[in-house]
Amino acid sequence: MDPRLLSTTDMSAEHAQAERGLLCDLMLEGGPDAPTLCEGWTAAHLAAHLCLRERRLDVGLGLVLPGPFARYTTWTTDRVAQRVPFERLVSRIQSGPPTLVRPIDGPMNLLEFFVHVEDVRRAVNGWSPREDEALQDALWPFQQSRTKLQTRRLDDVDLSIARPGQPSVYVRSGSRSVTVTGEPGELALYFFGRRDEALVNLDGDPEGIREVSTAPTGF
Question: What pTM does this model have?
């Protein structure tokens, strides 16, 4: 874990638990066939993904490794979504992280659950951003630490990120300068690939902005 995040762990765990609970409520309210921003996924697929991510290391590998690992993860997620009752999956998520995961619940799950809450909320017309400054403060150090990895496929972009009205934070070097500004949760959505629904502003070199706007991002 990044040493800079150690002091935020307790606070982030509280917010991760709150996001977990909110996501479960939203999924139960919408039902297994509710849409999400995850392409091709319903709420049932999302619930299966979250259960497997915390409990099955073999499936978790496919979230970061391509080829046969990714194909196995996709197959297993689809199978669980189809065969395990939706309410049972949500109940497992509601029960909290497994024992081995609890010490790192915040660092591992805060961004994950925030993004998936918004995957459900923003898949339905009429959404608006949540007003929660404490949540945004909790998200900020984690998004700062992960943006470089999420943007590793950028080519020659000098990238910075910023919260509105605050100094920018340097991410990576290049010849084409771009700054992406937004609340931490919006930056998380943007760099996790939810560009169309993320409320951010891009300023800088036009070619750099085009690169940031189209290059693959995320893990």
Answer: 0.91
